[in-house]
Structures are given as structure tokens and as C-alpha cells.
Specification:
The chain is mainly alpha-helical. It is built from four helices and no strands. It has one domain.
Length: 85
């Protein structure tokens, strides 16, 4: 079967990659937007501005201050298991 440029079958086959490309671009954009949002949250968190981050808080007020912002979360057990493979 030879498909001509004006044939409806030709148009449906030629246009089929467009929605797939659009979905992939949307997925990339969504991931990028989430990463940017998370980066801003983490960079503005109080924990980022503490000089001795590895040291434990000296007072309860310092503990409350450090934990008032968004904290980095550990990956889930499933994600750790997949990363260990």
C-alpha cells in the first residue's frame, strides 16, 4: 500500500510521534520544575545557614530553628534497594 501525502492514513502515521514527543517534553519540564522548587526550598532552609551543620544543636531553641524549614528526606527503602543493585 502506497501512502500519498493527501491520504488520511499518511496523515495519521505522520502525526503520531507528536503526542509522544509532547508527553516526553512535559515530563522533562515537570521534573525540571520540581527540581528547581526543591532546590530553592533546600537552599533557603535554616539548616543551610548553620555553621556547624554536623554538630548537634546546643539548645532546644536551636533545634526548633534548625527543623523549622524543609529538611532533606532520605530515600525510601525501595529506592535504597534499587540503588544498591
Amino acid at each position: 500500500m502506497n501512502l500519498a501525502a493527501g491520504d488520511a492514513g499518511f496523515m495519521s502515521k505522520a502525526a503520531s510521534p507528536a503526542p509522544q514527543i509532547a508527553r516526553k517534553l512535559l515530563a522533562v519540564w515537570t521534573d525540571w520544575a520540581y527540581a528547581q522548587h526543591r532546590l530553592v526550598e533546600l537552599s533557603l532552609s535554616p539548616e543551610h545557614y548553620v555553621f556547624k551543620r554536623k554538630a548537634s544543636p546546643q539548645t532546644y531553641a536551636e533545634f526548633l530553628y534548625r527543623t523549622s524549614g524543609v529538611l532533606p528526606h532520605e530515600p525510601s527503602a525501595r529506592e535504597r534497594a534499587l540503588a544498591g543493585r
